[in-house]
Amino acid sequence: MAWIYLLLAGVFEIGFAIGLKYTEGFTRLWPSAGTVIAAAISLWLLTHALRTIPVGTAYAVWTGIGAVGVATLGIVLFSDSASPARLACIALIIAGVVGLKLVS
Questions:
Q1: Looking at the predicted structure, is the pLDDT value of residue 84 above 90?
Q2: How far is the C-alpha of 16 from the C-alpha of 10, rounded, in Å?
């Protein structure tokens, strides 16, 4: 169950980070409220995952899920670069997250 909490925490981390783009410096009410709520849920789920998963592993996986998700959505939503080098770096993050799961 801890890994499910961690996966969901990562998904809400993605929502938090993408939400920041829409808050326009926290000047827009509803995007700001959604962003704060996503951050709170993400941290709450992370704390539940930390009951079982070692902190170093959990934090690295949480940030890895967030980084890959935000980078991917940046490409899709905001026309960020999808260069081969960037995609290779995203793949390395995925490999690291999978590796941490396998050894934990």
A1: yes
A2: 10
Q: 39-62 burial, b if ≥16 CB within 10 A, otherwise e?
A: bebbeebbebbbeebeeebbebbb
The answer to whether the predicted template modeling score (pTM) of the entire model surpasses 0.85 is yes
> What is the rounded CA–CA span in Å between residue 68 and residue 10?
10
Cα(55)–Cα(70) distance, rounded to whole angstroms?
Answer: 22
pLDDT (tens digit, 9 = 90+) per residue, 32-55? 999 999 999 999 999 999 999 999
* The pLDDT of residue 104: 84
Local structure of 18: helix, strand or coil: helix
Segment holding 42, helix H or strand E:
helix 29-49
